[in-house]
Amino acid sequence: MSSTLDLALLYLLAAVAGVVACRMLRLPAMLGYLIVGIVIGPNALALARDSAGIQYLAEFGVVFLMFLIGLEFNLPKLKSMRHLVFGLGLGQVLTTIGGAVIGNLMLTGIFMIIGRTWELTWQGAVGLGAALAMSSTAIVAKLMAERLELESEHGRRVMGVLLFQDLAVVPLLVLIPALAEQTGSALWIGLGFAVLKAAALLTLLLVGGQKVMRWWLTLMARRKSEELFILNVLLVTLGLAWMTDKAGLSLALGAFVAGMLIAETEYKHQVETDVRPFHDVLLGLFFITIGMKLDWRAVVNEWWLVLLLSCLPTLAKAVTVTMLALISRAPPGISIRTGLYLAQAGEFGFVLLSLGAEHQLIGAQWMSPVLASMVLSMVLTPFIIHYSDRIAMRLSSSDWLMQSVQLTTIAKRAIRNEEHIIICGYGRSGQSLARILEQEHFAYIALDLDPDRVRQAAAAGQSVVFGDAARAQSLIAAGLSRATAVVVSYHDTASALKVLHHVHAHAPKVPVLVRTIDDTDLERLRSAGATEVVPEALEGALMLASHVLALVGVPMRRVIRITRDARDARYGLLRGHFHGNDDTSAEDQAQVRLRSVILPPHVHCLRHPLGDLALHAMGVSVVSIRRSDGHVIQGNDQLVLGSGDVLVLAGRPEALTVAERKLLET
User: Which CATH class is domain 579-663?
Assistant: First the structure.
């Protein structure tokens, strides 16, 4: 491909194909970018070359990645987790890099004994160790969120290490180019000079930069121009990146500082929303160019090296993190889980590896095997995390004991309860429900996975214990067979379905109430056995409507009756809504929807009562009727329709089509 347009179209087509394939397989989009880069690259189909223009675009992707990391930088959160971040996190990164250097020295000695030359210097080992020290924040955080483990003991440790890794990228971006430029004493002088430049520039930007940034963004926001605001955000980001680049540092460092400065202003969330599309597209290009560097022939010829580089670093990281967690006095089971969750390679590893190769610290012969091993470790991560509990129990005999103690604690708290209510999740909704139950003298026991919340609530005398409500053992220990009801107070459908499955299996007569955000999964939850599903969207709308009606002078009795009638009608109006062309998924097609039908003159139904049409027999109900004079009324069987009336029908798509044909018959 020769022209720029041809190359751009090829990259876009490859990116779309890769992301769609990974979404279908429930894999991270990043893996799709890497794979399509391999396929279209010079070492496979040779449809594209690693051109300078694409490299510049890919570098902008890294710039925006670091900008978002700076934007998400949260100083209070960092302070609250400082022991995990600067203890466990710092230890993991330094130990991994140090292990790479020691391993490199050992291999150098072995090769000297057998009369061969080992081709990786200690500077290259530092760069390679830095790349392998990173773990995948995107994959691990997503999997932990799905498993409701972000606030668990091992989840907090994992997130602390990931947070430090994100921060460690900043000095590593300064370190790797410095390692490549000098050797011997000149190296340390150059490295010290680079650190001084970085410190001076960062101090200058951070001391007075926040006030200037807030003033400037406020000035732009007052112009009330979205285009102008976005342009200024891009100008600030790329301007600071240019400044650090001219100072002999990296572009990414300036972007990180720009994100930190904006994070301290009230425009943080708006900026994050505006920049996210640029970040995602450009970062996708970066991962495609990384994939293009992988030579599949070298991977096939040196498959043993790929397996070795996949297994040894993964195992070494898992063992290292586990040992560091044990040193920090974490229980063995928690330590093993933390190590398993952080064993894989990460997104920033590709950035550091590419930087090392660019400065010739890492030889070209290493690129393909290392890239392939990093991708393989990331592909295996979901399976490792899925079996982490079994692995931890197999390796740690005390893990069984700890879980037994946990279940015993739950059982001791619930043993005296009869006809109590089990609250799954003790967040704001769970705590509000518990207060009402206490006022009405109903017994309850709450299960929650946040140890700090459980500790504080239990100290205050509230009936809450640490436990995973999505596990059958926890529910049984909480007295499921003696409970009056189970309430899922958090909005996580996957976990709620597990709770419903366990209740149905062990206590099918116990009713279960589930809280959701909207009606998206209403039918799935009801089909799984939920006695009632309470969508927050409906309850919020009802409260908003009641306040509006009260403010405009509607008598309070009537307001209460209106909201009561809406609840009596259940959530049919919420589940049914008008669909458009973008509602094309299988779930959208299966849901109840609304349809408006205008009755023209001379149709047959105008001469008959509404009840004679037997719409209910078709599975269709009449939500409301807008008469030709503009009044909206509720339909009844005796109502005679008139020309120009608009019927709002609720039902499934096929039934609505049949009903519309019947209404429009002449």
Answer: alpha beta
